[in-house]
Amino acid sequence: MRERPLLLIQDELVDYEKAMERMADLVAERQRDERPDTLWLLSHPSVFTVGRRTPLDHLPDPARGIPVVETGRGGQLTYHGPGQLVGYLIVKLGEDEGIVDYVREVELRLVAALAELGLSAERRDTPPGSELLTGVWTTETSRKVVSIGMRQSRGVTSHGFALNVDGDLEPWHWAIPCGMPEADMTSLLRERGAADMTKVRATVAAAFQAS
What we know:
This protein has helices at about 15-30, 100-115, 190, 195-205, and strands spanning about 5-15, 40-45, 45-50, 70, 80, 85-90, 120, 135-140, 145-155, 155-165. The strands form two sheets. It has a seven-stranded mixed β-sheet with strand order 1-2-6-10-9-8-7, with helices on both faces. It has a three-stranded mixed β-sheet with strand order 4-3-5, with no helix packed on it. Helix content is about 25%, strand content about 25%. Helix 2 crosses helix 4 (about 195-205). The chain is built from four helices and ten strands; from the N terminus they run βαβββββαββββαα.
């Protein structure tokens, strides 16, 4: 992987729609070269987010009481909530890079971070003829621990990844995550029996050369 140091921004719990407004500002600044490549680490209150092509039958029952918000990223439905580490990546791609290339880099950096945290994980190749398969799965249990959905605009990336650390996994069962009915979503806590968000944040930041 190429050297790609990032500026690190950290917040705790930020409302999803307010975060989208700030992310748009960060992207515009990067497009104008008014800020360096940036990693923003944060968490969200409980919310389901959906891509433009998410089928209606993948959505949760409204009676669950968790808002559903349409988003401009790639991918389909995902869940955000306390105990999950979200990373938004505002990065200007090189002339020889596309968004798929960068998503693969993001996967590999997260695999490295999880290895540092004691969890063996892997990215997966997309089967021929299938929609782009993104994310990170545990090696031993084949459960999905990281969701990824990104886009680029005028050469700058936005959105990013969601790593399940120690939050409630039950909401994942109320919808179809990532367009994969068979996906078994997991967390560091479920896999390792313990998880320290402070350590996870530091380890993920280091994997992305962010400071």
